[in-house]
Amino acid sequence: MVDFQTARATIRANANRLFPKAVGDGRSASERIRTGGSPIIYHDPKFKFSKQSKFFTIGSCFARNVEAILKRMDVPVLTMNQPIPDEFYGLTGLGGRTGALNAYTPDAILDMIRISRRPDRNTIGRVHFADDAYMDMLISGVRQSNSEEFDFVRTLIMETYDKLPMADVVIITLGYTEAWFYKPDQVFVNRPPGGNRALMLKGDDFCFSNRTPNQVVEALGKTIALIRELTADRAKIILTVSPVPMNGTWTSKDVLVANSYSKATLLSAAVSLAESYDFVDYYPSYEMVTMSPIDLTWEDDGLHVKSSRVEEVIKTFSDLYFE
After folding, report:
1. Host domain of residue 122
2. How many Å is the maximal CA-CA distance in the chain?
3. Is residue 88 one of the residues assigned to a domain?
4. What is the tally of structural domains in the chain?
């Protein structure tokens, strides 16, 4: 807690603290989100990077948008070095890509980093159907495979995580709180046991949990500590929340309520932890996207953010954080 005088000094120094429309100064939140374009959101970064800094991105599909744009800016992105070939995805025709790296919940993100340090890392989360048929529950979007294909893709993913200790900056993009746990290997996974008939027959091996605020803070705190340990206390960490809504909820709530719970829980945890460490910062990409006009921001599916909008968000990031 802070005393009254400290709190008063804080608000006197904050020119952007008021929401109601002010008279002519243009700095109220109401005015800044009613410009007809992207909202003006002020952010004071804790630290700066050079464009030679090595980036490692972890998290949901929005993290893939971020890394692609950083790569186009000639920033070294460690997670872009080994894309998974198109033929191994369930949805083909998009070319080799890094979507298989998607990790959606704080617990799954933590387990992916932990698993990469284990000697049995190439078999954890592997579901065996019949004969030579497997599904990798740790890897997002890949199709059912035989053992040779499974080993090839899992090896690429683990070799990518082997590069984490080289990172100068780690960007974590949090997706949602609805998590699935694979009981045989005691690990949080990155795909639900649905949408595949053979996988649904293995449904009793899984359990569902909508993570609480305390559980999210705990998992994210452990992730921060592990990243710092692996990078010898060198890496700076940027926390963000993906603006991309969940495709559907596994709870009894309306998906609008379920999605709001997920995003609010993740956002509060990210902001709280960023305020606890001088090497962790929260970047408000979620607010920059969700407060923008719908037609300028979302693809026709209502789920994915237009690339032009992502580019604006990352350009703002670049202007703020790069020396």
Report:
1. 56-321
2. 72
3. yes
4. 1
For residue 76, being part of any structural domain is answered with yes
Which DSSP category does 57 fall into? E
199 neighbors 193 (Cβ within 8 angstroms): yes
Extract the tokens encoding 254: 């309306």
Could you tell me the CATH number of the domain that includes residue 84? 3.40.50
d(CA 238, CA 243): 16
Distance (Å, whole) CA 79 – CA 121: 18
How far apart CA 153 and CA 158 sit, in angstroms, is 9
Tokens 């923008």 sit on residue: 292
Tell whether 187 is covered by a domain. yes
Q: Where are the alpha helices (DSSP H) in 231-306?
A: 255-274, 285-290, 294-297
The amino acid occupying position 228 is R
Per-residue pLDDT of the chain in tens (323 residues, 90 and over written 9): 889 999 999 999 988 888 887 766 778 888 888 887 788 889 999 999 999 999 999 998 888 888 888 888 899 999 998 899 999 998 899 898 988 999 999 999 999 999 988 889 999 999 998 889 999 999 989 999 999 999 999 999 999 999 999 999 999 999 999 999 999 999 999 999 987 788 888 889 999 999 999 999 999 999 999 999 999 999 999 999 999 999 999 999 999 999 999 999 999 999 999 999 999 999 999 999 999 888 888 898 888 888 888 888 888 998 999 98
Q: Residue 294: how many CB atoms within 10 A of its CB?
A: 8
Looking only at the bridges linking them, the beta strands covering 126-128 and 134-136 are antiparallel
Residue 28 lies in a domain: no
